[in-house]
Amino acid sequence: MAGGVASILLGIALFGGLVWLQQPSMIFFPSARLVMTPEDWGLAYDDVTFSAEDGVSLHGWYVPRAGARKVVLFLHGNAGNISHRGESVRIFHDLGLDVFIFDYRGYGRSGGRPSEAGLYEDATAAWRQLTETRGIHGRNVVIFGRSLGGAVAARLASEVDPGAVIIESGFTSARDVARAVFPVVSRLSVVRFEFPAAASLAQVTAPVLVLHSRDDEIMPFELGERLYHAAREPKAFVELRGDHNAGFLMSQPGYGQALGQFLDRYLPEETQ
Fold this sequence. Notes:
By secondary structure, this protein is an alpha/beta fold. It has one domain: Rossmann fold. It is 41% helix and 19% strand. The chain has 10 helices and 10 strands. The strands form 2 sheets. Strands 2-3-6-4-7-8-9-10 form an 8-stranded mixed sheet, sandwiched between helices. It has a two-stranded parallel sheet with strand order 1-5. Strand 2 and strand 3 (57-63) form a beta hairpin. Helix 3 (116-133) packs across helix 4 (148-159).
């Protein structure tokens, strides 16, 4: 009997350890090959290479819009790379905004391997690329994060002073996602990532827009609501329709209109 219990406990420990080791591959799904460029989307762009503080080389695209009053710093989700975000770049471009979209370390043409700390460093480097290298006032930068990028956006916005923050299909923390999506596994293994988006967002003083779909099959709608409640005023919440990856497209034209109304309300003019 004792031996049987010991075997079960050993099995649980081994399973938990295996899950712990495999967590990076469960979080990050990078793709190295760029399948398109903004030119394929009919947009002019600058190819940008810059470095994170630890020396990792990062790659991105700066997509200008004539007469743009603001710039969107685009923090994408956990899969693919910047070449898979053409529809989103086009939406922001059509709203009259420049877009700076880049790949985290380990994604696309960026060097290194992805990690939570690394993604935070990469976002900071991208912010400095805009505010220091390009001389853009921080209040003219809108930090946008989708899915995992929402947690990175919240962290960055808690440390800098942007004009606004937009988080789409986000979550409150990695532990909350694990409890909601993998309840059994989360009890058997320690979650090695934090991504404390709600705690970070609670420190942000800029206007915040949270968008989430009830049909999201990956990030529960409840986590989007909790993320919104964690934010300070002024803030707004927009309910989307459709799944996690295509909800913003399925919610058109209302999606683009909601973004435009939020930006018009809180960022009416360029800051000098």
